[in-house]
Write the structure tokens for this entry.
Amino acid sequence: MTHILHRSANAVMPVAVGGRGIELFDADGKSYIDASGGAAVSCLGHAHPDVLAALHRQLDTLAYAHTSFFTSDVAERLADRLVSDAPAGLDHVYLVSGGSEAVEAALKMARQYFVEKGEGQRRHIIARRQSYHGNTLGALAAGGDAWRRSHFQPLLMEAHHIDPCYAYRYQRPGESDEAYGPRSAQALEDMILELGADDVIAFVAETVAGATLGAVPPAPGYFRRIREICDRYGVLLILDEVMCGMGRTGTLHACEQDGVSPDLMTIAKGLGGGYQPIGAVLLGAPIFEAFAKGSGFFQHGHTYTGHPMAAAAGLAVQEIIRRDDLLANVLAMGAHLERRLGERFGNHHHVGDIRGRGLFRGVELVVDRATKAPFDPKLKLSAVVKREAMARGLMVYPTGGTIDGVRGDHILLAPPFIVTGAQVDQIVERLGDALDAALASIL
């Protein structure tokens, strides 16, 4: 009997009682390899002693102070760290409690920026189909996740969506990667012109598409062309790196690998590694100056903005990643994971695509490799894979509706940055067994 409304109303959930390294333990003594970091959150794994010590020190010093009255030393130090490591042009930080809050704040910053500039007619947000930007109403409206949007459509603000940069499904036969990227980006300019260039606020995109598409990286040249289009029409570029950022793809910010800087960037998940709820918006000087020289404030706020305990967790996690050179391990283990996935699934009849960057990898499942046809959604393959993986002591992040919110299945992997080669081998072995068992049960 539970009084909690779980994600699945009729679920009987195992009870987590502890964790260590890349494993979690339930009340029955069973261990699970956390191969997805929860939802790409646990970048340092569980019970890291240095993070726990930092939280104890902060609790002894200051647990909470409302930001309408005070700032705190730890929040200031975290902001300094984030700005020092930020992409060029991002020089201020707005701290929040998670990814959805970060996206909500970024959307409102973008709108208020134009209001402060005297361009209050700008009202349109453009994003991509099959994107995920969060579950609060503004973030859900910007996102293109058809399944998550379906019940709440009447409550959502107007937003406009273009096709994602999704080579496996949208690249034409014989088209090079270098040709596909700019062609895919052209859809943004077409949409801006259709809506009216003077009426568009921002384009929002995940640098590497996460939960809904399954670790889909952009094609070469895609974001450089996107940046050019935004600059041409005075449209703000908001990059959502809530899931793919803070080292997950092998560089601290995923957009470093694409040679672009956004006007606003959202981060969360790997920022605090799950040790406290924390997210942030990184913004550039033009936006900050518009507020500072205009109304003098950002018309927004939450009770736990800049929470000292959350800031302490974020600062500790980021310092450990730098101190222990964990991005080098993300690159090395990411390459090992890519190789092992290729060896295990590269010729698998029901695996159509293996993709991603660093320790952020997706495996798309299909009925037939040649036709790329998806499984019947009624089979709920992704849920069966999750069940079989949990039975084998493995946590992965399978999702259905990959193609259009209804059809398609993929498995997302995002193990902690501390993962070893032997642990990667275990993850792939258990995933292979779980997938084969899931397919055997439905075919």
Observations:
- DSSP finds 14 helices and 15 strands in the chain.
- Residues 130 and 396 are 20 Å apart (CA to CA).
